[in-house]
Design a protein that fits this description.
By secondary structure, the chain is mainly α. It is built from eleven helices and no strands. 78% of the residues lie in helices and 0% in strands.
Length: 295
């Protein structure tokens, strides 16, 4: 618990550094370019497809008639954009995570290592190719879990538990691996995962709940379509900053855990004994010559 809280506050402090804030805009630039490109080519067609699917549903038409009878028929205009935005939110989250892992996590981990652990040996137990394969494999498993669990989201308590739990698991897998890739060996990484799996998963789940906060901005972008060009990039940047904080938290925690692990396993070198000279050892007879003299 002490390690968890210490690494948390250190991550918060590091997020205020100009270098970290500047790094958080790098994935944002790529994400905004991607979002604008996809929106330019596919936004209208996506809206038309969603509207056609809604109009073809008799249940939805019945709901429209009821909404118009109570004076809320204007909701029909914003439902299609709202569905499209919420549908692409998981994709944006995953892409943000991958962007942070590729562009920011190595730089942030190096920042933590330089300032807190300059003497920590770099054993390079995870290469760039291994990190990419690990991230892509974990992301694929998370997406499968998301799509399988979507029907369970209709149960009110589970929608508050399942998505953050899946995002937390993905964040823990990606961030912890990248935080240890440069400094830990493969054996040390497995040992840290084994010892600290619960705490690392807790950091990931907490980060998952933080990542759910920008969804309010997505919803506002749907309700206020005119402000969407501002609100959508703002939401993406908040996602990126949350993941940057998560990366710093994992870096502080994992590198401190690695340092403690090496302190446990490092052999204890015995101190060399001082040579004792014969002159320093005095016999009782020599020290007290009168003790054994006859009376």
């Amino acid at each position: 618990m002490n390690l968890l809280l210490d690494s948390f506050w250190r991550a918060v402090a590091y997020c205020l550094r100009p270098r970290v804030i500047a790094l958080s805009f790098l994935p944002l630039i790529l994400m905004v370019a991607m979002a604008l490109g996809l929106g330019y080519f596919y936004w209208e067609s996506a809206l038309d497809w969603v509207r056609g699917a809604l109009e073809a549903s008799t249940v939805v038409n019945s709901v429209w008639e009821w909404l118009q009878s109570v004076g809320a028929g204007s909701l029909k205009m914003v439902l299609a954009p709202l569905i499209v935005i919420f549908a692409i939110t998981p994709v944006i989250v995953v892409l943000s995570l991958l962007m942070v892992a590729i562009l920011m996590t190595p730089a942030l981990t190096s920042l933590v290592a330089e300032r807190r652990f300059p003497q920590l040996e770099r054993k390079r137990g995870g290469s760039l190719a291994a990190s990419l394969l690990w991230s892509l494999g974990s992301t694929l498993l998370a997406l499968i879990a998301i799509f399988i669990s979507i029907p369970l989201w209709l149960i009110p308590p589970l929608i508050l538990v399942l998505p953050p739990l899946i995002w937390g698991w993905l964040t823990y897998r990606v961030m912890a691996f990248d935080a240890l890739a440069e400094h830990a060996s493969a054996q040390e990484r497995r040992e840290i995962f084994k010892r600290h799996r619960g705490w690392l998963l807790g950091i990931g789940v907490f980060s998952g709940y933080l990542g759910a906060a920008p969804s309010l901005i997505w919803a506002s972008g749907a309700m206020l379509v005119a402000m969407a060009p501002i609100l959508v990039p703002l939401a993406i940047w908040i996602y990126t900053l949350v993941f940057a904080f998560s990366s710093l938290w994992f870096a502080h925690y994992c590198l401190a855990a690695l340092q403690a692990l090496r302190a446990e396993t490092s052999p204890v070198v015995p101190m060399p004994a001082e040579p004792i000279s014969a002159e320093a050892v005095a016999l009782a007879n020599d020290t007290h010559p009168d003790i054994h003299k006859p009376g």
